Amino acid sequence: MCRWMAYQGDPVYLESLLFKQEHSLIHQSLSARKSEVTVNADGFGLGWYDEREEPGLYHEVLPAWSDSNLKSLARHIKSGLFFAHVRSSTGTETNRSNCHPFSYKNWLFMHNGQIGGYESLRWQLDRLIPEHLYSHRHGATDSEVIFLLMIANGLETNPEYAIEITLSQILDMMKQKNIKDPLRFTAVFQTEKKSPRFAFPVMNWHQAYTASNSPSTL
């Protein structure tokens, strides 16, 4: 299981939440208490907003707890809105292109979950991504496919609809292939200067609920 956090509130140095809390994300990536996987060592990523519209990004394949560059960046970057993600791969290789968060224009996206039978669906799912978005397909993960399909389905104007249509498309493909493994989807996405939206599916994965949060850490 991947682990992630999203913060929105008064600007803080990233190290105050990533490293200095008793149960910080970095600590959990090394020694998780409640997880089938106690170590998340398949990559790390940061996405943060400051004065610019588009977010800053940092991805690395080193374990988060041993990345000296991350420690230095977190000590010096101050933000009122940022995402952080430690990855536990569900099958795709460990490289920077597969690390969350993913970005498009001024959007950030992180996902925890898995498309059941993804390898047998991957070619078909990629074909659903419109040509003008396919240049943003940098990695090989199912998470990135979900994000790009959400954009194609109207994320920028109607997030709830985009999530519902995207998950329905994936479920339809899974049914056609008679895939019995579940579709697991929990995500957070963000556009500049707005509250992060946390999304999780209900009603047998056919609908999605999104909630904007007041200043908080997820």
Low-confidence stretches: 201-215
Widest beta sheet: strand line-up: 3-2-4-1-10
CATH superfamily: Aminohydrolase, N-terminal nucleophile (Ntn) domain
Computed CA radius of gyration, to the nearest angstrom: 17 Å
Summed up, the helix count is 7
How many beta-strand elements? 10
Provide the CATH top-level class: Alpha Beta
Helix content range of the residues, please?
Answer: 25-40%
* Largest sheet report: 5 strands, antiparallel
CATH topology: Glutamine Phosphoribosylpyrophosphate, subunit 1, domain 1
The SSE order reads: EHHEEHEEEHHHHEEEE
Count the domains: 1
What is the compact description of this entry?
It comes from Marinomonas sp. (strain MWYL1). With 218 residues, the protein is an alpha+beta fold.
Describe this structure in words.
InterPro entries: EgtC-like (IPR026869), Gamma-glu_amide_hydrolase (IPR052373), GATase_2_dom (IPR017932), Ntn_hydrolases_N (IPR029055). This is Glutamine amidotransferase type-2 domain-containing protein. It holds the Pfam family GATase_4. 29% of the residues lie in helices and 30% in strands. The chain is α+β, with helices and mostly antiparallel strands. It has one domain: Aminohydrolase, N-terminal nucleophile (Ntn) domain (Glutamine Phosphoribosylpyrophosphate, subunit 1, domain 1, 4-Layer Sandwich). β2 and β3 form a beta hairpin. The radius of gyration is 17 Å and the shape is globular. The two termini are 16 Å apart.
